[in-house]
Design goal:
Layout: E1 12-14, E2 19-21, H1 23-41, E3 49-53, H2 58-71, E4 78-85, H3 95-103, E5 108-112, H4 113-117, H5 121-128, H6 133-151, E6 156-158, H7 163-176, H8 179-183, E7 195-196, H9 204-214, H10 230-244, H11 248-259, E8 270-272, E9 279-281, H12 285-294
Parallel strand pairs: 3-4, 3-6, 4-5, 6-7
Antiparallel strand pairs: 1-2, 8-9
Helix pairs in contact: 1-9, 2-9, 7-10, 7-11
The structure holds iron/sulfur cluster (SF4).
The site of iron/sulfur cluster has 10 residues, from helix 6.
Amino acid sequence: MQCSKCRHEAVIFQRYSGLHLCERHFLASVEARTKRTIRQHGWIRSGDTIGIALSGGKDSAALMHFFATTFGDRRDIEFLAITIDEGIGGYRDVSQPKEIARRYDIPWTTASFAGEYATTIDEIVSRRGDRQSCSWCGVLRRRLLNRVAREAGCTKVAFGFTLDDEAQSVLMNVLRGDTDRVTMSPKPAEGMVPRIRPFEAVPEREVALYSHLTVGLLPDRGCPYSHNALRGDVRRLLDDYSWLHPSTKYALLGLRDDLAGCGEGTTMTTTICSECGEPTFGPCRSCAILREVNRG
Ligand code: SF4
């Protein structure tokens, strides 16, 4: 199949746009959408130090490539790659993100659950089972990443979340009836480093292809606990529906933006947890999780 914009061979067909794209036009299309997203939200400004949440998987590696090639010449913007080691044997291997950061000449740092919480996800699962492993892991990872980024002087933390991740989050909040999260609008909060998601308008399969064409093939070790994520069910539901209605994920992203700031969630403010000293919305979930998993 030929590229819809030139005569070269197409590497992808975008069902939602009806376009076949060759490698050059595909890379340009991903980068243009990502730059537009950053511009629309005013996410990157002169003087920023951007922490990149770098797991070493394809999404965060693609983000690393995008930042290094798009902003690499800017002396007024700095980057720091941050890898969180949750302690999941056979899955998390910090040597992979370290090597990716070295390749793009971006400073890299790491922090572990073992060092921060004196436990690991593997230990938690062996004591408490794996039913809630993803929800515990996500809360503890966000807290540690935020602390590392804040203490390193980062002004933003960038995630490689894709359109699929964002659309799944919106649908999950709707399915849970979580009005606060559906209508919440991000706003500055004491101790919280603002989060940015430059790939939020790019579908996951396109970020994967972008990563493959730019960074190269990366070992894909699946997390042994991923089958427990509610997200997996929502992903299947959304992928099936989107097959028939290809613009559904963009529609959910639009819904999120339209509803942001419309409800009481906008009045939610952070407080500093008296136990751990970290910022939290309402009761500190990290401390509650640590109490629960360390219970005798
Ligand atoms: Fe953590 Fe779940 Fe992701 Fe594994 S799949 S790294 S347990 S959030």
